[in-house]
Amino acid sequence: MGTGQGACADEHKERAESARKERFRNNSENVVITHIVYSIDQLELFIESNPSLTKVQWSRLEATIKQLKVLI
To answer: Which residue, among 19, 35, 23, has the nearest Cα to 72 in the 3D structure?
Structure first.
């Protein structure tokens, strides 16, 4: 990837991150908490279905749930 392409990709990532942060700030605390709780519940339901995942995938899933639980 050329220097211009890399800079363009970095700029795109920064704009996307800025837009995500803005959308997050525009939601009330209750909405954010509701979505986090819903996400945790759905991930835990998925785990209960005993999917066939690799150790790395299980680790990522468990780490994601752990990080979400820190927020609530």
So the answer is: 35
Tens-place pLDDT, residues 26-66: 999 999 999 999 999 999 999 999 999 999 999 999 999 99
Residue 54's pLDDT is 96
Could you tell me the sign of the dihedral formed by the alpha carbons of 17, 21, 26, 31, in that order?
Answer: positive
In the 8-state DSSP scheme, what is residue 72? -
Total structural domains within the chain: 1
Full domain range(s) for residue 63: 3-71
Q: Residue 1: its pLDDT value, please?
A: 52
Tokens 């942060």 belong to which residue? 21
Evaluate whether 67 touches 40 at the Cβ level (below 8 Å): no
Closest by Cα among 8, 2, 70, 6 to 39: 70
